[in-house]
Specification:
Helix content is about 35%, strand content about 20%. With about 525 residues, it is α/β, with parallel strands linked by helices. The strands form three sheets. The protein has a nine-stranded mixed beta sheet with strand order 2-3-1-4-5-6-10-11-12, sandwiched between helices. It has a six-stranded mixed beta sheet with strand order 13-14-18-15-16-17, with helices on both faces. Strands 7-8-9 form a three-stranded antiparallel beta sheet. Mean pLDDT is about 85; it is low at about 150-155, about 205-255 and about 490-495.
């Protein structure tokens, strides 16, 4: 045991502080207690990290830009259903204080750690620090997209920092990676770690540009694999992500990726995208870097069910009963299929039975802000956290697959946890949906930035109401939806479908909305 008398007292103080925050102030209380205790003991995290390493408990880390909370909670739920006691920062507090707070909470008053396994979601920024303290057995990376440039810098920098931190470890944790995402996949490139890859079934949707095809034919030196791929743009080597997005917006489509250049040599990638504009296959015509073969591949059949196919059976012979695994997803959205696959690979690694995984996936309920739904005054409110262009585009794509026209509340702020730079909203493809919004309310600290963005996209300003007060803005749009006479599009009076409100919120506004809605 590496815990001293001071650490044992800190366990008691942590539990006391959290009890006060939860019972009196109605807060999660995951972060503040650790912040206070670290003021008293600068070695607190080091001592508890050493104790965790000494216990030699299995540790799973989940990081990435989008989907890490859902993926980590899916893993935790599956392990719990299998009878394991799981230590996890289930509320999504994924910075250092939140992570160590979730660890200290699992200690009993006699300083015994009450968990069989740890599943920890980690913010990309603190990931190198956390794995330098706690030895991971498995690392799951969901994806890398631009996210709060003022905090993280360019996405390639974030990826390389994480890759170097993994390479610097004395141990070799197993890596669970998306083979369809060039940057996340590159973390496992040229490493000695055991790797498992997941991907969605390729539908071979190409960007049709004759000039690009001709240029690709002239420059292709990568073999038969490259012959099957269409280049994003090889005629303009200086094309950046913003201009690519701009070009695709003109065609009412957008590529949901920030990795248009090869992470190894920097040249433009050749790629296939599926019907949802998610990259499925890619290859660099210059250095030969390409997507790894997937161990598990998913095929979606709408919202009815999803099938996972094992492409590398040898790797799973001792862990699977059947070649295929199918289930009816409890959370929709094409991007959630990737989260399911990442969680599935981890659970199969620990030999969790297929039936347990199926029940977990089919009965999983989302946390607030992750496609969370609640009926308020007869109106179904769906709340999604939005923090970067790719995530926002994914959410919009999911919503408009089902709904032709929606009511929307944007809660948009720029506090530290949200990111001070709000320019990312200009890369969200609102242009594709200009005729699909009905009533719109905008609130938060930066509502006019969002209002200008929507107006510039071509959305009628008559539909937009701005109110800095979150509660008033919410009540106002609820009243507008309830009053059918205020609708700006024709409503079928015989339609008995429940009215819906979609709420798009930055991180810090989620707590304000939760107080109002839950």
């Amino acid at each position: 045991m590496y815990l001293n008398i001071k650490n044992k007292i800190e366990i008691i103080l942590y539990k006391f502080f959290k009890l006060i925050l939860v019972a009196v102030f109605k807060r999660n209380g995951d972060v503040l207690p650790l912040y206070l205790l670290k003021k008293l003991d600068k070695n607190l995290t080091d001592n508890f990290a050493r104790d965790i390493n000494a216990i030699n408990i299995p540790v799973i880390f989940v990081t990435g830009t989008n989907g890490k909370t859902t993926t980590a909670n899916l893993i935790s739920s599956g392990l719990n259903k299998a009878g394991m006691k799981v230590c996890s920062n289930i509320n999504g507090a994924n910075m250092t204080n939140g992570i160590f707070g979730s660890i200290i909470e699992r200690y009993s008053f006699n300083s015994k750690f009450n968990a069989d396994i740890m599943v920890i979601e980690t913010d990309e920024k603190v990931f190198p620090y956390i794995i330098s303290k706690i030895n991971p057995d498995i690392i799951v990376i969901t994806n890398f997209y631009r996210d709060q440039l003022d905090r993280y810098g360019e996405v390639n920098t974030t990826m390389l920092s994480i890759k170097k931190s993994i390479q610097s470890l004395k141990t070799r944790p197993v890596l669970i990676l998306p083979s369809n995402e060039p940057l996340a996949s590159f973390v496992g490139f040229d490493t000695e770690n055991k790797k498992f890859y997941f991907n969605v079934k390729s539908e071979k949707k190409e960007f049709n540009n004759d000039d690009n095809k001709n240029n690709n034919d002239n420059n292709n030196n990568g073999g038969s694999d490259n012959d099957k791929l269409n280049t994003l743009n090889t005629s303009d080597k200086n094309l950046d992500g913003h201009n690519l997005c701009k070009r695709e917006k003109e065609n009412s489509n957008i590529a949901l990726t920030d990795a248009i250049s090869c992470p190894q040599c920097g040249n433009i990638l050749s790629a296939y995208f599926n019907a949802h504009y998610i990259m499925t296959n890619y290859c660099c015509n210059y250095c030969g870097y390409k997507n790894a073969a997937a161990d598990v591949e998913a095929e979606s059949f709408g919202d009815d069910y999803i099938t996972f196919n094992f492409k590398n059976i040898e790797e799973f012979n001792s862990k699977i009963k059947n070649k295929d695994f199918d289930f009816k997803p409890s959370i929709q959205g094409y991007y959630n299929i990737l989260n399911y696959m990442a969680a599935f690979l981890v659970l199969k690694f620990y030999c969790i039975d297929d039936e347990i995984i199926k029940k977990t996936f089919e009965n999983y309920s989302t946390k607030f802000g992750r496609s969370f739904k609640k009926i308020v005054q007869g109106i179904e409110c769906s709340i999604d956290l939005v923090k970067n262009p790719s995530g926002f585009n994914n959410v919009l794509e999911k919503i408009f697959e089902k709904d032709d026209c929606i009511n929307a509340l944007f809660a948009f702020s720029d506090r530290d946890a949200d990111g001070r730079d709000v320019s990312w909203i200009w890369d969200v493809n609102f242009e594709k949906y200009i005729n699909k919004f009905n009533n719109i309310a905008i609130t938060g600290l930066r509502p006019y930035d969002m209002a200008i963005r929507l107006k510039t996209a071509g959305i009628d300003i008559k539909k937009i109401k701005v109110n800095h007060n979150v509660k008033k803005a919410f009540n106002e749009i609820i009243n507008l939806i309830s009053d059918k006479n205020n609708c700006l599009y024709k409503i079928d009076k015989t339609d008995k479908k429940i009215d819906k409100l979609y709420i798009f919120s930055t991180y810090t506004e989620l707590s304000n909305l939760e107080k109002i809605i839950v």
